[in-house]
TrEMBL record:
Keywords: Lyase, NADP, Nodulation. Gene3D superfamilies: NAD(P)-binding Rossmann-like Domain (3.40.50.720), UDP-galactose 4-epimerase, domain 1 (3.90.25.10). Its EC number is 4.2.1.47. The lineage of its organism: Bacteria, Pseudomonadati, Pseudomonadota, Alphaproteobacteria, Hyphomicrobiales. This is GDP-mannose 4,6-dehydratase. The keyword Manganese does not apply. Its cofactor is NADP(+). GO terms for molecular function: GDP-mannose 4,6-dehydratase activity; NADP+ binding. Belongs to the NAD(P)-dependent epimerase/dehydratase family. GDP-mannose 4,6-dehydratase subfamily. InterPro entries: GDP_Man_deHydtase, NAD(P)-bd_dom, NAD(P)-bd_dom_sf.
C-alpha cells in the first residue's frame, strides 16, 4: 500500500517562517523535508523542537544540507523527496544587508527561485509539485498607490527587492509557460518572537527587555518615520498553505490592512514594561526619553538609514479574504505583547554582567 501522506519541501526551514510553516504542516500530517545551510555553528534553534532522530523509523521531519545557489544539490533533493509542495522561503532576507551583498542576494533570492522551478521542470514534476514563492511587499518600494494590492505596480528600492522582483516574474512566467502550479504570496511584514534579531521589531523588543532588566542602556535606531503593515508570522504561514490548496495557482497579498510608524512600535513596546516614551528633537537629533525619569533611552543612528527607503506600506488583503478565506487573527497589540514577554524570558537567562548578544554586526 502506498504512503498517502503529503510531502513538502521547505527551503529556509531554519528561518522564522520556516519554523511556523513546519509546525503547521506537521500538524496536518505532512512529511516535511527542509533545506539547511551548512554552518560552523548550530543554526537550527527555531526547529530544534521538531527534530526527530534520523535513526527512528519513518521520520516526519528531515533536514538536508544545501543552498539556493547550488543547482545540482537542489535538483537532487527534489528528485529524492518527490515533494507535492515546495515552499521557497529561503533568502538573504535583510533589506539593508542587501545593499552590501547585492550580487549574492540576486543569486540566492532571484536565481535561486529559478533553480527550483527548473528542478520541477527538468524532473518532469510539473503536474505533481506545487510551488509557493515568498514574494514581498518590498516589491512596491516607492509606492505607486495606497493601499497596495495585487494590481499595484512594483517599484523596487533595494537589491533585495530587485532580486525578489525577478523571482516574482519568473514564477508567473513558469506558471504561464509550463502550467506549473506556482503562486506568489506577496506578504507584508510579519513578525514573532522568532523574528531575526536585526529586523526592527525584534531589535526593539529585545532592547526593551534588556533595558528593563538593566542589561542595556540605550537603543539606537534608523528611520523612525517609516510605516509598516505588521502582522504575526503564524497567521501568514497559514495563508501560504491555503494558496497551494487552491485548484488554480495565483498571486495573493497577505496583510493586516493597518499601518504604523516605527516610532509607534517603539512606544507600544516600552509601554509593555510600564515606560512611556517622550520624544524630543527632530530628524537625526530626535531622542526618546522615559517620561517619568527623564532617562535617555533611544537615539537615532544614521548608520541604519538605507540608501533608498520604503516609506509607507499598507496592504489590501481583500483578494485573499474572498478567495482563500484568509484573514489575520493577531492584532498588533497582542503581537507586541507576545514579543516583549518572550524577550523578557530570553533576557532573564543572560548573566547580569554580560551584554546581550547582538551578533556583533547590527543592522
Ligand atoms: P529569515 O531571514 O528568518 O529566514 C531565511 C531563511 O533562508 C533561513 O532559513 C536562512 O538560513 C535561509 N537562507 C538564506 N540564504 C540561503 C541560501 N543561500 N540557501 C539556502 N537557504 C538560505 O526570513 P523569514 O522567515 O522572515 O522570511 C521567509 C521568506 O519570506 C524570505 O524569503 C523573505 O525574504 C520573505 N518575506 C519575509 C517577510 C517577513 O516579514 N518576514 C515578508 C515578505 C517576504 P539560515 O538560518 O542558515 O540563515
Ligand atoms: P523591512 O524590515 O526592511 O521592512 O523588511 P526591517 O524590520 O528591517 O525594517 C522596517 C523599517 O524599520 C526601519 N528601521 C530599522 N530597521 C532595522 N532593521 N534596524 C533599525 O535599526 C531600524 N531603524 C529603523 C527600516 O528603515 C524600515 O523602514 C522586512 C524583511 O523581512 C524582508 O525580508 C521582507 O520582504 C519585508 O519585511 C516585507
Amino acid at each position: 500500500m502506498g504512503d498517502s501522506r503529503k510531502v513538502a519541501f521547505i527551503t529556509g526551514v531554519t528561518g522564522q517562517d520556516g519554523a511556523y510553516l513546519s509546525e503547521l504542516l506537521l500538524s496536518k500530517g505532512y512529511v516535511v523535508h527542509g533545506l539547511k545551510r551548512r554552518s560552523s555553528s548550530f543554526n537550527t534553534a527555531r526547529v530544534e523542537h521538531l527534530y526527530e532522530d534520523p535513526h527512528v523509523e519513518d521520520p516526519r521531519f528531515i533536514l538536508h544540507y544545501g543552498d539556493l545557489t547550488d543547482a545540482t544539490n537542489l535538483i537532487r533533493i527534489v528528485q529524492e523527496t518527490q515533494p507535492d509542495e515546495i515552499y521557497n522561503l529561503a533568502a538573504q532576507s535583510h533589506v539593508q544587508v542587501s545593499f552590501e551583498t547585492a550580487e549574492y542576494t540576486a543569486n540566492a533570492d532571484g536565481i535561486g527561485t529559478l533553480r527550483l522551478l527548473e528542478a520541477i521542470r527538468l524532473l518532469g514534476l510539473k503536474d505533481k509539485t506545487r510551488f509557493y514563492q515568498a514574494s514581498t511587499s518590498e516589491l512596491y518600494g516607492k509606492v505607486q498607490a495606497v493601499p497596495q494590492d495585487e494590481t499595484t505596480p512594483f517599484y523596487p528600492r533595494s537589491p533585495y527587492a530587485a532580486a525578489k522582483l525577478y523571482a516574482y516574474w519568473i514564477v508567473v512566467n513558469y506558471r504561464e509557460a509550463y502550467g506549473i502550479h506556482a503562486s506568489n504570496g506577496i506578504l507584508f511584514n510579519h513578525e514573532s518572537p522568532r523574528r531575526g534579531e536585526t529586523f526592527v521589531t525584534r531589535k526593539i523588543t529585545r532592547a526593551v527587555a534588556a533595558i528593563k532588566l538593566g542589561l542595556q542602556d540605550r537603543l539606537y535606531l534608523g528611520n523612525l518615520d517609516a510605516k509598516r503593515d505588521w502582522g504575526h508570522a503564524r497567521d501568514y504561514v497559514r495563508g501560504m498553505w491555503m494558496m497551494l490548496q487552491q485548484d488554480e495557482p495565483d498571486d495573493y497579498v497577505l496583510a493586516t490592512g493597518e499601518t504604523h510608524l516605527v516610532r509607534s512600535f517603539v512606544e507600544m513596546a516600552f509601554r509593555e514594561v510600564g515606560v512611556e516614551i517622550e520624544w524630543r528633537g527632530e530628524g537625526v537629533e530626535e531622542k526618546g526619553y522615559d517620561a517619568a525619569s527623564g532617562r535617555l533611552l533611544i537615539e537615532v543612528d544614521p548608520r541604519y538609514f538605507r540608501p533608498t527607503e520604503v516609506d509607507l506600506l499598507i496592504g489590501n488583503p481583500a483578494k485573499a479574504r474572498e478567495r482563500l478565506g484568509w484573514q489575520h487573527e493577531t492584532s498588533l497589540q497582542s503581537l507586541v505583547s507576545e514579543m516583549v514577554r518572550e524577550d523578557l524570558k530570553v533576557m532573564a537567562e543572560v548573566e547580569p554582567r554580560d551584554k546581550p548578544n547582538m551578533g556583533l554586526v547590527h543592522a
